[in-house]
Write a structure and sequence with these properties.
CATH class of the largest domain: Alpha Beta
CATH topology of the largest domain: FAD/NAD(P)-binding domain
Number of domains: 3
Radius of gyration: 23 Å
Distance between the termini: 49 Å
Largest sheet: 9 strands, mixed
Number of helices: 16
Shape: globular
Number of strands: 19
Structural class: alpha+beta
Bound molecules: flavin-adenine dinucleotide
CATH architecture of the largest domain: 3-Layer(bba) Sandwich
Length: 421
């Protein structure tokens, strides 16, 4: 290919497609290169997408996008040694406007990339970008196999282990900055899912698990309801997993056999298994001369314990990258000085603002007691409160007795939690 493009986007995940769609609508000549056979082919993971960012770009996208279920029920399960305690939150107001949807990436990514193509972008799947072309220390294109293609700007939207950000000389992520996400898709009839999760037809649930499921390693479990399958998985800190020498696959196998989980997935057929890394901290640099980094490639994921948000952050950063390219094109100057407008937009909008708000969360969430002492405490306390086998104590006295010897620790952790989350 010898044609020169205005913009080349590497990767057709949510960040790449959001950038391509926005740029094509603005009239730019855009090329997206995706290494998978089709967008989403390599992105089997994911579960729930918060709707806000995509709704700004494509209003009421759910009327045409292949979403699975609108999430109206949120559950949080504390898993103790012998018991579990679940908070079950159902909110009519999460229905309209919808807060989040479950999605299957293989379908969703194809739809989103096609929206960019309909808007005028050129999509080339099945090709891996290997390197960048440089001219006077400025990125001026990409290398894919023997092909060299030039552009005014390259957007690296190639996911958590971004080869392109690395080739651009941006600092590599350390293993401590990654979590590992493992996920199974388990097929079940629609009606069974709705009965087991107490859902109205077409509505969905997100259930998070904290405690025994991650074997004292910081992380958590999740189940998201798709139309006729469940996304079941674990997110866990990689460096602790390595230190404890635990096989990651065994964790998900044991999660499936936990009584609470086993009842929900009973009779289901495993359709696929996938694993991928999730960045925990953002890159120190998100742009250089002629190049911007969006989505996971820039570490733009926020894990606040209760919400794991990568897809909406990727979409918003893709849109911001497009706006920065527009500004650079107006000045015909693609230097880092002009492209720095990208970072300004990310700070003004929610992406870098939320990263800042929750910057202490990754460190707080590494506290092992969150996965051992506290889930166990909640379960043991409710055991005391519900058991009738003789004279009963008042609730407050039961709390004092159960927390004996741990109160200072609990108070300190509560303070840390209030600062971090
Ligand atoms: C198990 C798991 C569960 C998750 N659950 C959620 C969730 O519930 N909600 C949520 O919001 N987020 C979730 N995330 C995070 C979310 O998946 C990511 O934040 C999101 O996919 C980031 O989008 P992206 O476009 O930046 O990158 P990606 O989705 O990773 O897309 C990158 C694309 O680039 C392509 N690519 C890579 N290298 C090259 C190359 N050299 N040349 C060409 N193409 C290339 C890839 O094939 C891919 O299509 C989860 C992650 C995991 C691992």
């Amino acid at each position: 290919m010898s044609e020169k493009f205005d913009v080349i986007i590497v990767g057709a995940g949510p960040a790449g497609s959001a950038a391509a769609y926005s740029l094509a609508k603005m009239g730019f000549n855009v090329l997206i290169i995706e290494r998978g056979k089709y967008p989403g082919a390599k992105n089997v993971m994911g579960g729930r997408m918060y709707a806000y960012a995509l709704n700004r770009l494509i209003p009421e996208f759910w009327k045409e996008a292949p979403v699975e279920r609108k999430v109206t029920r949120e559950k949080l399960t504390f898993q103790g040694e012998k018991a579990s305690f679940t908070l079950d939150f159902m909110d009519e107001e999460l229905r309209e406007p919808p807060n989040s949807f479950t999605v299957q990436r293989a379908k969703f990514d194809q739809w989103f990339a096609n929206k960019a193509v309909e808007a005028g972008a050129t999509l080339v799947p099945g090709i891996r970008v290997d390197d960048l072309i440089w001219e006077n220390k400025k990125v001026v294109g990409i290398v894919a196999g023997t092909d060299k293609i030039e552009a005014n700007v390259v957007i690296a939207a190639d996911g958590a282990v971004s080869l392109i950000a690395e080739k651009a000389g941006l600092k590599k992520f350390d293993v401590k900055q990654f979590a590992l996400g493992m996920k199974e898709i388990i097929e079940l009839p629609e009606k069974t899912i709705e009965e087991r999760f107490n859902l109205a037809s077409g509505e969905g649930a997100a259930q998070l698990f904290v405690g025994q499921c991650t074997k004292e390693i910081p992380g958590g479990g999740f189940i998201y309801t798709n139309k006729s399958s469940l996304s079941v998985g674990i997110v866990i800190y990689i460096d602790r997993l390595i230190k404890k020498k635990i096989e990651s696959h065994n964790i998900i196998l044991e999660f499936n056999t936990n009584p609470e989980v086993a009842r929900l997935i009973e009779g289901g057929k495993i359709l696929e298994y996938s694993a991928h890394v999730i960045p925990e901290t953002s890159r120190s640099g998100l742009f250089i001369d002629g190049l911007l980094v969006a989505g996971d490639a820039g570490g733009l994921v926020v894990n606040s314990g209760l919400t794991l948000r990568g897809m909406d952050m990727a979409i918003a950063s893709g849109v911001a990258a497009a706006e920065a390219v527009k500004k650079a094109a107006e000045k015909n100057d693609f230097s880092k000085e002009i492209l720095s407008y990208y970072e300004e937009l990310l700070k003004r909008d929610f992406v870098l603002r939320d990263k800042e708000t929750f910057k202490k969360a990754p460190e707080f969430l590494q506290n092992e007691k969150l996965y051992t002492l506290y889930p166990d405490f909640v379960c043991r306390l409710f055991h005391r409160l519900t058991l009738v086998n003789g004279p009963k104590k008042r609730v407050f006295d039961e709390i004092l007795e159960e927390s004996e010897g741990k109160r200072i620790q609990m108070f300190l952790d509560m303070l840390r939690g209030m600062r971090a989350l």
